[in-house]
Amino acid sequence: MKKTLFIISMILVFLAGVYAGYALFFKDTAEKVEISRDILLTSLKNEGFLVSQVALLQEEITVENSTGSTFKDFFWGQDIIARANIKVSSGVDLSLLVEDDISIDEHTISVSLPPITIHAVELVGEVAVENNQGILKKMFDNDDGYNVALLQLQHGARNSVKKEEFRHIAEKSAVETIERFLKFIEQEKEINITVR
Predict the structure, then answer these.
(1) Could you write out the three-class secondary structure of the chain?
(2) Which residues, 6 or more positions from 64, have their beta carbon under 8 angstroms from its beta carbon?
(3) What gap in Å lies between CA 150 and CA 154, rounded to an integer?
(4) Residue 54, Cα to own-chain centre: how many angstroms?
(5) Residue 53's beta-bridge partner residues?
(6) Hey, what long-range contacts does 175-183 have (CB within 8 A, 24 or more apart)?
(7) Among candidates 122, 90, 97, 114, which has minimal Cα distance to 37?
(8) CA 42 to centroid of chain Cα atoms
(9) ∠ CA(139), CA(142), CA(147), 5° rounding?
(10) Nearest Cα residue to 167 out of 32, 40, 55
(11) Mean pLDDT by 10 residues, the chain (196 residues)
């Protein structure tokens, strides 16, 4: 009986030692890291450009290079009709953030994002160009109109994306993305994101 009691007491002492070791060395040893404004600013700036909206637009343009005279147009005139799919990426350039755009207090983190800008305008596929040229222009100055058409198509796509509805979608997406990022870093604080 003494032997059994001794073994049980040794097991209890061993378990008490394991618990004490856990309580002293493993439990609550993770320190709460406080996020500073400088750390947050650097983290966001390092993300670069945040593309928050990609729009795929079908654009069509007509370019009339008319001389004003029907007779001259017969020889030197040019009409271009072009169609293409254009992809426009817009979002927020986080590298433009400055220290005053971020405020952190005991309960909230507030970030004021730069305005939405267009990041890239890209051609998707080919440009379909119909080119009607005057007789002499076709012989001596045979310009297929591709470059002029492409520039006009890209310009039209840029103007389409500058509309309020596109800007609103891009702003909302940027705010949601930054909120998710900040909630991942700091779960306990309220997050306020605005776009300038």
Answers:
(1) CHHHHHHHHHHHHHHHHHHHHHHHHCCCCCCCCCCCHHHHHHHHHHCCEEEEEEEEEEEEEEEEECCCCHHHHHHHCEEEEEEEEEEEEEEEEHHHCCHHHEEECCCEEEEEECCCEEEEEEEEEEEEEEEEECHHHHHHCCCCCHHHHHHHHHHHHHHHHCCHHHHHHHHHHHHHHHHHHHHHHCCCCEEEEEEC
(2) 78, 79, 80
(3) 6
(4) 9
(5) 90
(6) 175/113, 177/50, 177/52, 178/44, 178/50, 178/111, 178/113, 181/44, 182/40, 182/109, 182/111
(7) 97
(8) 17
(9) 170
(10) 55
(11) 73 77 64 74 86 86 66 58 88 90 88 91 82 55 68 87 89 91 83 87
For residue 45 the two structure tokens come to 């700036």
